[in-house]
Amino acid sequence: MSEDSASAVVSVDAGAVVSVDAGAVGGVPVLRVGGEIDMGTCDVVRHALLPWLDGASGGVVVDLSGVTFLASSGLELLIEAARRADRGGVRLVLVAGHRAVLRPLQATNLDAVLAPHPDLDGAVAAARTASGATEPPPDVPGPA
């Protein structure tokens, strides 16, 4: 799959670092989040995620595979994002295939609501289906 992106790494306090990387994979918007999502970093992620969702349509992917810690404030943000996406007619698809993210989702039964995918390819396919597209756009430009 082709990928376009722009990234930002934000150091929030001594030792707490979160990164947010917006781009696209196979024509599907993808927001990658890495690091810890807790009270100290949640607002940084919120200020990137919510406006990104507001400008989206169809299906989008939030890739949490780089998240090393997900606190209750991060869970609250995911709920807020899911509600906002739903209100905007956007299908929010999560990537969460490791314990640091899956365990908090499972402990709160949010895994049943948010239905995370274990890998990016599966999430992109689900988002593409939500957008009505069946195949990724070609990587090469068409005739001029």
UniProtKB/TrEMBL annotation:
The signal sequence is none
Q: Where is the composition biased (Low complexity)?
A: 125-134
Q: Where is the STAS domain?
A: 18-127
Family annotation (CDD domains): STAS_anti-anti-sigma_factors
Q: Which Pfam families match?
A: STAS (PF01740)
Recorded hits in InterPro entries, A to Z, give: Anti-sigma_ant (IPR003658), STAS_dom (IPR002645), STAS_dom_sf (IPR036513)
Q: Which domain of life is it from?
A: Bacteria
> Annotated region Disordered: where?
125-144
State where composition is biased (Pro residues). Answer: 135-144
Query: What family classification does the UniProt entry report for this protein?
Result: Belongs to the anti-sigma-factor antagonist family.
- Supply the NCBIfam families for this chain: ant_ant_sig
Matching PANTHER family, A to Z? ANTI-SIGMA FACTOR ANTAGONIST TM_1081-RELATED, ANTI-SIGMA FACTOR ANTAGONIST TM_1081-RELATED-RELATED
- The protein's name is Anti-sigma factor antagonist
